[in-house]
Design goal:
The chain is mainly beta. Helices cover about 0% and strands about 35% of the residues. Strand 3 (about 15-20) and strand 4 form a beta hairpin.
């Protein structure tokens, strides 16, 4: 993400939301123009339960997991340059959450080719 010191707020960033958008959705949006947004209300978080949340992006392929379960995955057609925007942040907007045991690491990944093979 990008942090704008002159306005003390985030600039360009992927924002992962849990129980968000006033309707309990899990989602990802892209600031600062918010033209890219995906969300689903299909995961029902329980108040007081502890969740291991993992979120990130690789070349615009964004994801959120809770307790190892993939909740949402989306591909941004205009990905953020992760070499230029290198910060991460946490923010609670109209939420009551506790964040603890934070681990930040470089994603280790390998490309997987997915294609339909001609059968006849």
């Amino acid at each position: 993400m990008e942090w704008l010191t002159e306005t003390d707020q985030r600039g360009i960033a992927y924002v992962a939301g849990l129980q968000g958008w006033w309707t309990g959705k899990v989602g990802i949006e892209k600031s600062n123009d918010y033209k890219f947004m995906v969300g689903t209300p299909l995961f029902n978080f329980q108040p007081g339960e502890i969740y291991k949340i993992q979120a990130g992006s690789v070349d615009g392929q964004c994801f959120i997991l809770a307790n190892g379960q993939l909740l949402l995955e989306a591909m941004d057609p205009d990905p953020i340059d992760s070499q230029k925007y290198t910060k991460i942040g946490f923010e609670a907007y109209c939420s009551k959450i506790r964040v603890r045991n934070i681990v930040i690491r470089q994603i280790n990944w390998e490309a997987i080719t997915m294609e339909y093979k001609e059968e006849f």
